[in-house]
């Protein structure tokens, strides 16, 4: 086993941080020192600092930079002519190498080809339409032997074909806009958590490896927007209920593996069908934006509901749970404020009727078994209570700083507080997650290095990721990096994934 | 990844500002103008109430490899305040990205900037960032795009007459004022500027910019000057970054389909418009 130890995660993080911060600060220090040592005259008249310049004539001389020949006519002639449609998309090849796995496990965990095709249509006046299809096939499973994986893994990870966006969008009047179809509605300020951003579920099949831009899943909905000066009112009805895309049972990121390892069966997920609703009031002002949000939607993450328990001779012989989605009501606020190179952001939400899992499920099963000789309890019996309904308060506070040369730094912390917390519940009354994001650009933006570090409180583990992106030519990008999971305590959230460290690489061509 | 890459886009709008700095009504040169007066005349040009243009940016590295970006820009003045929006047309990986900016004349007010990233389907407010940074990988810095704050610099005429492409020019040197030296250099990255100003139309036709960091020198050129709807407009701008007289990188900006004072609807300068596209 090649698990990366905790200290290596920290070293990876600190070395990367050190390199980036060093690159960032050394020039500043040198410049500062140079400035201090510069001789300046005491008076601040209009000739201060001038010198006889020896380079006035140097502009057009022998410097080879003037020799760059560019066929500007050819470049300009490529100018796109407007038509009623635009076609585009990308082809991407992903490789993943899970070096932390046992030799018998799949090591080359991803050899995926993704094709994305999109078409934008300008229909009439201010009306537009868009359709995006996305599909992938992962050769890793065939390469490693499909018979070694269960059907769910193959169904979830080996291939996919779906219509992502498919909508009609236009203005009814200058103060009202209408958008209907499969779409993404991105609200809120957090880049990591779903606090008020409740419309679209996320692709959670590979924890920490998918960027937010790729993880939101479009849903069929109707959105009405009304505008008055700098105010905006959005009314949304979500007709299609989709949950988060979860890792397949038995896969390396299986979120139910702790449950199933105790002999509990997790049935297929059940999705509700009732329409959801969301309202947002948004205002933009000089230096910031604020939003007030109300929603009545199903949680994108399922909870495990009691399905069936069979007792035989005072012993449980079959126990199953079903992932279902709880309808929750949210009232929230989000805002940001800019000053200089700083952007401060916050989100607050009060979520009613969330489902919090209980930690004593097996104890309940034993108690039921001890008082029952032989019987099968179905879901209507409520023999087992796997979760409790609680209200949840979520608060995000964060900032982005762009004052360093070619570096963007952002930090975000999300605090969850379960109201009326009980000892029988999993987790704790208060928990938090901190995310650090450091991005450095070099070589005239050809090269971007990005470090993401996520820490879960209560020793629930750390996740670190380093990405390096390089633009080979326009629209052709090569990237690579490493993602590391660290958890030492067996009860930690990330403990089941501690061996899933992965090296990855990708080649993407956009057209 | 996209977020960080595209944060550089936010100051793209200042390209248009810079272009406008180079478009002037014809003004008769005055013999007794001071260096500051000349720079002020350069800054205080009429750039129209509104402008619409298409721009091509060519990025050239030292191996002469080229990258090309295309965008469409809209600008509108509201008194002394300016609103502008830019839509990216290509390359494919940034297509439909847009940047909206409110540039307030009042220094006490923060400029408002938003970025729309189509991959995120989200309008995101962004901060002004570091003005020394290059934007979109070009050789123009944010400070170049925004223009220098003239009252923070001392200017001196170092040559009263020199001919550039048959046009009589002044050569004006600028250095940061002593009291503001550290601040100005930190903000702009420049130790000194030398500008060639055409006397007949008050256009900066070329500049030599001394960069503090790594002792680079940047060469700016404005070419293909045309009078469009009565306003002098440079249709080609270039900036070459050199170090030790070797070219490190070069950017050429080509402007096309310039239209002034044609009326741009206020609804263009809204975050809703960013989501909808051109």
Would you give an account of this structure?
The complex is a heterodimer of chains A (511) and B (278). With 511 residues, chain A is mainly beta. Helices cover 14% and strands 47% of the residues of chain A. Chain A contains 7 helices and 22 strands. Chain A has helices at residues 6-37, 72-77, 140-144, 151-158, 212-215, 257-260, 361-370; strands at residues 85-97, 110-124, 127-138, 159-173, 176-183, 219-228, 231-238, 265-266, 276-285, 288-298, 303-312, 315-324, 327-339, 342-357, 375-378, 387-401, 407-418, 430-442, 447-456, 461-473, 476-486, 502-510. In chain A, strand 11 and strand 12 form a beta hairpin. The longest helix of chain A has 32 residues, at 6-37. Chain A is globular and about 85 Å long. The two termini of chain A are 41 Å apart. Residues 1-15 and 17-47 of chain A have low confidence and may be disordered. Chain B has a 13-stranded antiparallel beta sheet. Chain B has 278 residues and is α+β, with helices and mostly antiparallel strands. Chain B has helices at 2-7, 13-21, 35-43, 142-146, 181-188, 271-276; strands spanning 50-61, 66-78, 81-90, 98-103, 112-117, 122-126, 153-164, 167-176, 190-198, 204-211, 217-228, 231-243, 246-260. Chain B starts with a helix and ends with a helix. Chain B is globular. Chains A and B meet through helix 1, helix 2, strand 1, helix 5 and strand 13 of A and helix 1, strand 1, strand 2, strand 5 and strand 6 of B.
């Amino acid at each position: 086993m090649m698990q990366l130890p905790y200290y290596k995660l920290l070293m990876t993080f600190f070395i990367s941080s050190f390199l980036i911060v060093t690159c960032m600060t050394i020039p500043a220090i040198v410049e500062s020192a140079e400035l201090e040592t510069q001789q300046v005259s005491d008076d601040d008249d209009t000739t201060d600092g001038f010198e006889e310049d020896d380079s006035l004539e140097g502009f057009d001389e022998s410097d080879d930079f003037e020799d760059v020949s560019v066929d500007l006519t050819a470049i300009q002639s490529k100018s796109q002519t407007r038509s009623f449609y635009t076609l585009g998309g990308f082809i991407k090849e992903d490789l993943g190498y899970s070096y932390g796995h046992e030799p018998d496990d799949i090591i080359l965990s991803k050899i995926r080809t993704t094709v994305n095709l999109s078409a934008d249509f300008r229909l009439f006046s201010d009306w537009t339409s868009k359709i995006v299809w996305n599909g992938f096939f992962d050769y890793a499973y065939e390469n490693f032997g499909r018979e070694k994986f269960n059907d769910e893994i193959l169904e979830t990870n080996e291939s996919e074909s779906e219509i992502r966006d498919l909508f009609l969008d236009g203005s009814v009047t200058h103060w009202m806009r209408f958008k209907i179809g499969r779409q993404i509605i991105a609200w809120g300020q957090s880049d990591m958590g779903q606090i008020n951003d409740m419309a679209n579920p996320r692709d959670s099949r590979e924890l920490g490896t998918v960027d937010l831009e790729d993880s939101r899943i479009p849903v069929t909905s109707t959105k009405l927007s009304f505008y008055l000066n700098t105010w905006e009112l959005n009314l949304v009805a979500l007709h299609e209920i989709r949950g988060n895309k979860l890792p397949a049972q038995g896969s390396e990121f299986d979120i139910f593996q702790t449950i199933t390892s105790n002999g509990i069966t997790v049935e297929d997920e059940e999705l509700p069908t009732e329409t959801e609703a969301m309202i947002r009031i948004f205002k933009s002002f000089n230096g910031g934006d604020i939003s007030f949000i109300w929603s009545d939607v199903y949680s994108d993450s399922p909870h495990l509901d009691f399905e069936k328990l069979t007792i035989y001779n005072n012993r449980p012989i079959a126990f199953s749970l079903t992932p279902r989605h709880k309808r929750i009501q949210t009232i929230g606020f989000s805002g940001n404020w800019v000053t200089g190179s700083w952007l401060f952001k916050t989100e607050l939400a009060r979520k009613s009727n969330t489902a919090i899992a209980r930690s004593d499920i097996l104890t309940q099963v034993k108690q039921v078994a001890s008082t029952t000789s032989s019987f099968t309890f179905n879901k209507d019996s409520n023999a087992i209570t796997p979760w409790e309904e609680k209200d949840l308060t979520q608060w995000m506070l964060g900032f982005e700083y762009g004052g360093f040369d070619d570096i963007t730094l952002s930090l975000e912390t999300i605090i969850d507080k379960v109201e009326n917390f009980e000892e029988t519940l999993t987790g704790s009354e208060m928990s938090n997650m901190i995310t650090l994001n450091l991005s450095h650009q070099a070589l005239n933006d050809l090269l971007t290095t990005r470090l993401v570090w996520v820490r879960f409180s209560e020793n629930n583990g750390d996740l670190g990721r380093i990405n390096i992106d390089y633009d080979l030519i326009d629209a052709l990008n090569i990237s690579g990096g490493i993602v590391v999971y660290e958890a030492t305590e067996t009860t930690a959230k990330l403990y089941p994934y501690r061996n899933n460290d992965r090296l990855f690489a990708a080649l993407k061509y956009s057209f | 990844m996209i977020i960080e890459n595209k944060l550089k886009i936010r100051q793209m709008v200042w390209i248009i500002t810079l272009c406008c700095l180079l478009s002037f009504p014809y003004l008769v040169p005055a013999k007794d103008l001071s260096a500051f007066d000349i720079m002020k005349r350069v800054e205080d040009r009429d750039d129209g109430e509104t402008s619409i243009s298409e721009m091509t940016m060519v990025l050239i590295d030292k191996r002469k490899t080229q990258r090309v970006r295309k965008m469409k820009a809209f600008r509108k003045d509201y008194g002394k305040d300016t609103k502008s929006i830019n839509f990216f047309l290509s390359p494919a990986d940034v297509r439909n990205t847009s940047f909206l900016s409110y540039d307030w004349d009042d220094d006490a007010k923060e400029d408002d900037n938003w970025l729309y990233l189509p991959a995120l389907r989200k309008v995101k407010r962004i901060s002004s960032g570091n003005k020394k940074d290059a934007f979109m990988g070009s050789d123009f810095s944010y400070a170049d795009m925004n223009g220098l704050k003239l009252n923070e610099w001392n200017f001196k005429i170092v040559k009263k007459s020199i001919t550039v492409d048959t046009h009589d020019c002044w050569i004006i040197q600028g250095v940061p004022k002593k009291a503001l030296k550290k601040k100005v250099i930190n903000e702009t990255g420049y130790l000194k500027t030398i500008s060639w100003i055409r006397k007949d139309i008050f256009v900066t036709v070329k500049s030599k910019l001394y960069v503090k960091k790594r002792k680079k020198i940047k060469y700016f050129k404005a070419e293909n000057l045309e009078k469009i709807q009565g306003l002098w407009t440079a249709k080609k701008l270039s900036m070459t970054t050199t170090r030790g007289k070797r070219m490190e990188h070069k950017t050429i900006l080509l402007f096309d389909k310039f239209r002034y004072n044609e009326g741009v609807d206020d609804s263009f300068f809204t975050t809703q418009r960013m989501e909808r596209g051109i």
